[in-house]
Design brief:
Length: about 150
């Protein structure tokens, strides 16, 4: 997991062939005024702009992805996200066998980070994560990048 401010995103652009495109898009797009929806930057990058319902830690599950890296950035307000190593996840809740690429676990995250607008978090397939931990809703951007 990486947590940083958008202004430092160039530090991470060489970690994946698509990261330069993704971070340029995140730096130059007005997500506050962008309609909700999904769109592809290319065949390996999907951008999702959503209004996510906040939830409590005890009412949600830790998720992991096998094929995609998540880059998440809140737009409207701060968002707390839980994290723990995938290797420590043992109690399977559900697995998606379709194109959603998500598996859920029942564990409680071991660490939490508060992410402000114009900050981002990168969750790799080795990272269990629990987003949207807040009261109310958050407009956010999630970028799915093929690993």
């Amino acid at each position: 997991m990486i947590h940083d401010v958008l202004e430092n995103s160039a530090l991470y652009e060489n970690m994946n062939p698509n990261f330069k495109l993704v971070f340029e898009h995140l730096r130059t797009t007005d997500f506050e005024n962008m309609p909700l929806g999904k769109y592809d930057l290319n065949r390996d990058v999907r951008v999702i702009v959503s209004l996510a319902n906040g939830r409590r830690v005890e009412d949600s599950q830790v998720e992991v992805h096998d094929e995609f890296i998540d880059i998440q950035m809140p737009v409207s307000t701060r968002e707390m996200m839980g994290w723990m190593p995938r290797s420590e996840l043992k109690e399977l809740a559900s697995k998606s066998y379709n194109s959603d690429d998500v598996t859920f676990y029942r564990e409680t995250p071991t660490s939490f980070v508060t992410v402000m607008p114009h900050e981002f978090v990168i969750f790799f397939p080795s990272d269990g994560h629990q987003p949207c931990l807040l009261d109310g809703n958050v407009k956010k951007v999630v970028v799915k990048v093929r690993k």
